[in-house]
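Before drawing any conclusions, I needed to go through one protein's amino acid sequence and its backbone structure tokens, quoted below without any editing.
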Amino acid sequence: MISKRIISCLDVRNGKLAKSVKFVNTVDIGDPVETAKRYYEDGIDELVFYDITASSDNRSIMLDVVSNVASQIFIPFSVGGGLRTVEDCMKVRLAGAEKVNVNTAAVANPSLISEASKALGAQAVVLSMDVLKTEINASTPSGYEIVTHGGRTRTGLDAVLWAIKGEKLGAGELVVNSIDADGTKEGYELKLTRMIADSVGIPVIASGGGGKPEHLYEVLTHGGADAALIASMLHYGEYTVKSVKNYLSQRGIKIRLL
């Protein structure tokens, strides 16, 4: 059995670690480099860095911050935000990221996924999906819609169908981020995660809503996720990586322990 992964998300705005609830009311809460180093030393399996305003501001990602974070950790490191071309993805890799996250630009230009996969390898390309619950209709039969530009633009694109297409185009992993659950600490969107996990053959990372260790257990079992992404739980000091992992291990989840 492959170990489940615990991943921490570093949302970065103007070089500062930031946090929001349902993608609004964003506040700065710390230094991303110091935070990344602390989580690495505490045993986090992977880190994800999102430049959360790069797409909405129509600018490139902050490579200096990416490089500074990469210099402090020795675990898989994934970076997203404002990646529009394969060249952008290559720059992030050269700055120290092991994986690239594509989101808004991939919706506008799906060939970016296949081009990046050919250039970097599927294992290095993560399709990040921001998802909003919506009405079930002809365009969104699952009842979940893809949104872009940091949650600002609705696309009318069905989340499950987009996940399936992303895998076919060459994505090696999916991040399924529920905007409805984001920052609420009330639990992951289990139905959404399960639907996508059952529809694809690549790893699915659940994101949005983790507030206590029980939530991670639920999404890694009932939700079918291969990994759980957490932010608020760690950022505000309510839990440590070690305490979360110990809880999961005691519940029978195969997890990497220090």
Notes: The first strand starts at residue 5 and ends at 13. The mean pLDDT is 90. The radius of gyration is 17 Å.
